[in-house]
TrEMBL record:
SUPFAM superfamilies: GST C-terminal domain-like, Thioredoxin-like. InterPro entries: Glutathione-S-Trfase_C-like, Glutathione-S-Trfase_C_sf, Glutathione_S-Trfase, Glutathione_S-Trfase_N, GST_C, GST_Omega/HSP26, Thioredoxin-like_sf. GO terms for cellular component: cytoplasm. It holds the Pfam family GST_N_3. One of its GO terms (molecular function) is transferase activity. This is Glutathione S-transferase family protein.
C-alpha cells in the first residue's frame, strides 16, 4: 500500500503522480495544503513537507520525502517501465534536465504560481502585479530554452520519456491550470506538451479541481 501526501497544483507533487501513473502504481492520495502542513509529516522526518510517500507494502516500511527521493525509490522498487535511461550518458542528461526543471522553475513557482494561488485559491489578498510580471518573464525565458530542446529531440533528454519530461510537464501543467502559459510563442514545446498531456498518466492531473477556482477552459483539452 502506497500513500502520497500532496497538493494537487504543486508541480513537485505532480511530478511524483506522473511517475506513479507511468508505472501504473496504485496510490492513496492525501491532500495537504502547502500553507498548513500537518504534524504527521514532521513525525516522519525532521522538516518533512509534502510531497511525502509511505510504502507499507515493501519488506520494510519506506518513507520517502521530496520528489527526488520518491522518484528514485520508485525507479528501484518498480523498474519497469524505466523513467531513467539504462545508458549512463543518457541517464546523466535526464537527471541534469530534471534538476534544471526544478531549479529554473523555482522562481516562477515563487512569483507567478504563488500569486495565482493567493488570488484564486486562498483569496488572501490582491495579487502583486510586480511578482506576476516577474513570473511571466521568467516563464517565457524557460520556455524559449525548452522549445529549443523540443525542436531537436523526441523527448527532453533524448530518445525516451524520462523524469525530465515528467518534471517539466508537471510544472507547465500547474501554470496552465490558471491559463498562464503562452503556448503560441513556442510551437515545438506546445507539440511536445500535447503528446505528454495525451498519455494515460496525465488524466488524473487533467481532472484536478481545486476549491475556489476552475481550470482554464483549454486545460483538459488534448488538442488545446
Amino acid at each position: 500500500m502506497k500513500r502520497l501526501w500532496h497538493w494537487p497544483i504543486d508541480p513537485l507533487a505532480r511530478t511524483v503522480r506522473l511517475a506513479l501513473g507511468e508505472k501504473r502504481c496504485a496510490i492513496d492520495l492525501v491532500s495537504v495544503l502547502p500553507w498548513a502542513q500537518p504534524e504527521e509529516l514532521a513525525s516522519m522526518a525532521p522538516g518533512a513537507r509534502a510531497p511525502v510517500m509511505v510504502d507499507t507494502g515493501a519488506e520494510e516500511k519506506v518513507s520517502a520525502v521530496g520528489t527526488h527521493a520518491i522518484c528514485e525509490y520508485l525507479e528501484e522498487a518498480i523498474p519497469t517501465p524505466r523513467l531513467l535511461p539504462f545508458v549512463a550518458q543518457e541517464r546523466a542528461e535526464a537527471r541534469r534536465l530534471w534538476r534544471y526543471s526544478e531549479d529554473s522553475f523555482a522562481d516562477v513557482n515563487a512569483t507567478l504560481l504563488t500569486e495565482r494561488v493567493n488570488q484564486w485559491v486562498r483569496r488572501a489578498r490582491e495579487p502583486d502585479s510586480g511578482a506576476l510580471r516577474t513570473g511571466v518573464h521568467a516563464l517565457k525565458s524557460r520556455m524559449t530554452f525548452l522549445n529549443g530542446l523540443a525542436e531537436s529531440r523526441t523527448y527532453m533528454a533524448g530518445r525516451m520519456l524520462t523524469l525530465a519530461d515528467l518534471s517539466i510537464a508537471a510544472h507547465l501543467s500547474a501554470y496552465d491550470y490558471f491559463g498562464d502559459v503562452p503556448w503560441d510563442m513556442t510551437p515545438d514545446l506546445k507539440a511536445w506538451y500535447s503528446r505528454i498531456k495525451s498519455r494515460p498518466s496525465f488524466r488524473p492531473l487533467l481532472a484536478d479541481k481545486v476549491d475556489g477556482t476552475r481550470p482554464a477552459r483549454h486545460y483538459a483539452d488534448l488538442d488545446f
